Amino acid sequence: MTKWWKNAVIYQIYPKSFFDSDGNGWGDLDGITSKLDYLHSLGVDALWLSPIYESPQVDNGYDISDYRRIDSRFGTMDDMQRLIDGAHERGIRAIMDLVVNHTSDEHDWFRRSRQSRDNPYSDYYLWRDPRPDGGPPNNWGSHFGGSAWEYCADRDQYYLHYYASKQPDLNWENPQVRSEIYDLMRFWMDRGVDGWRMDVIAQISKYIDFPDYPPQEGKEFIIGPMHYYGPRLHEFLREMHQEVLSKYDCVAIGEAPASTPEIARLLTDPERAELDMIFTFEHIELDRVPNSVNRKWDLRPMEVRELKQVLSKWQYILADRGWNALYFENHDRARIVSRWGNDTLYRKQCANAFATVLHGMQGTPFVYQGEEIGMVNAHYELSDYQDIDIKNAYRAYVHDAGTISEERFTKAVWQVGRDNARTPMQWDASKNAGFTSSWPWLKVNPRYVDINVAEALADRDSVFAYYQRLIALRHQEPILIEGSYELLLEDDPVLFVYERAWQGQRWLVIVNLSDREQSAEQVRPLLYDRWRAVIANYPEPLAQSQLRPYEACIVARMDDDEGAHGDSPANR
Ligand code: NOJ
C-alpha cells in the first residue's frame, strides 16, 4: 500500500513568524490554529512545525531546555493539542521537529552533566579533556563559527557543540540518552503527532576518538567529513525505528547535510527501516564557493545546468529505492525568487517556475511558509538581523579573521542569510503585514504592501492559485508519484526540461529558468503529436516561437481517444 506521505505535500511553519494571535510580537500556536482553514484551502496534507518546545531561544528553539513543555511564548500544551486536533479535523497531519543532536545548555540533563565527571548525567554529553596546553581536544569547527568545543571549569573539560556553545551535543553512545529520546518521541506521538522532521540527524553518531583534521591554510578550526555519518548512525536509526517509528503510522524525514544520493538510498530504503526521506543540501548549496574560509558567505552564481544535473542525479538514484524530499526554501534557506531568480519584474512567473520544477519531480514536495505567495528576501542593515548564524559569522569572518569585507558579507546576507526566510508572514497590507498588532520580533519585509496573502487570494492568477493547482495535481495524478524521470536538453544553460512516464502516460515538464525569452526551437521536437497543457504559468503555453521569461508548463501526451480539446497547436 502506498504510504500517505508519498502523495503528500508538506507545509513548513516557522511558528515565531507565522501569526501572532496575542499581540506580543511573536507568532504562536493559536495563531497557527486560526490559519488552518487557509492551509486547508491551499490543499496541503501535513504541517511541519519548527520547534515550539521550551527553549532559551538562542537558535530560535533549536536549543531545547524541555522536550515535554511548550515555550510559554508559543502557548500551552492545551493550545498544542487544539492545533493537532484542528489539523486532524481538516485531514491535515502534524509533524514536529525532533532536535536531538543537541539540547540547550539550560536543559536539566546538561545542568547536571556539567557539575561533575561522576553523576548519573555525566555521560549524557560529549566531554573530553583539554590538550596538554589547555586548548580544545581537537581542531574541529562549529557550524556557527569558532571551535566546536567549549571549556567548563567545573569539570576541567571541554564539551562538544557542533552548533552554538549553548547547544551541547548529546552523547548517543549512551543507551540511557537514546532511551530518553525514544520516550519523548512516544510522549508526542501518543498525543497525535504524525511524524518527525529530524534536525541534523546525520550528525548524531560521532567519531568518538575525535582525531584532528589535517591542517588547512587559513583555517584554525575545520569542518569536514568526520562531522557527519559517524560509524553508528545506521544502527541508531534502526533502533529508533524499531523502538518507536514502527509502532505508529508516521513519517520520518531526516535533515542530512553533506549527503549523497548513495547515502540517501541507505537511509531511506524501506527494507532497511531507518527513515522515509531526507533533506539533502547538494542542490541548495550550488551557489557556494567550495571550501572557502568564509564558508557559506562566499558566493558564486548558480548555474542552471548544475542544478539540473544535481536534481536529476537524485531523481535517478532514488528512483527504485528510497524517496526524495523536494525543497527550495525552508527556515535556513533564503527565498528562491530572490536568491536564484527574479523578485521584481517576473516575481510571480519566477515563483511558479521554480515551483513547477520541484512539484513535477518524484518525491514529497515541501512548501515553506510564504513560498506559496512568492515572498522575497529582505535587504536590511546588518544590525536589523537577529539570526545567531549571521551574528557569529560576522564576528568570526568580518571582525576577527578579516577574511571578508563588511560590504561583501552584507551582500551575502541579502542573498543567503537565514533571516530572509524568517521575516514575518505577510497576511495583508495593513500595519506589520497583519502579522502582529505590536512590534514584530523581526522587521517585516517592506514589500508586504504588494506581496501578501489577502492580495494573493483576491487574484485568480496569483502564485497561491498556482500552488493550489500544483498541489491538487499531485493528489490526482499518480504519474507524479510513480512516474519515471528523464532529463532532456541536459546541456541547455537555462531550460529545465524533463519527462515523466507511467503506464503509457507521458508528461513533459518545461521550464525557462531565466528572465529572457528563449527560443522554443529545441523544445518543439520533444513535444508529442497531440498534447494538452496540464498546468502553465502563462496563457497559451508554447504557442509562440519563444518561451517567455520564466515560462513554465507541464504538458501531457493526448491519447487517440481523448477529445481534441486541449491547448495543443495540433488541435487548432
Ligand atoms: C538545522 C536547523 O534547521 C537550523 O535552523 C539549526 O540552527 C541547526 N540545525 C541547529 O539545530
TrEMBL record:
Residues 12-422 form the Glycosyl hydrolase family 13 catalytic domain. GO terms for biological process: oligosaccharide catabolic process. It comes from the Bacteria. Keywords: Glycosidase, Hydrolase. One of its GO terms (molecular function) is alpha-amylase activity. The keyword Protein biosynthesis does not apply. CDD domains: AmyAc_SI_OligoGlu_DGase. Pfam families: Alpha-amylase (PF00128). Belongs to the glycosyl hydrolase 13 family. PANTHER family: ALPHA-AMYLASE FAMILY MEMBER (PTHR10357), OLIGO-1,6-GLUCOSIDASE 1 (PTHR10357:SF184). This is Oligo-1,6-glucosidase. It comes from Brooklawnia propionicigenes. The lineage of its organism: Bacteria, Bacillati, Actinomycetota, Actinomycetes, Propionibacteriales. The gene is malL.
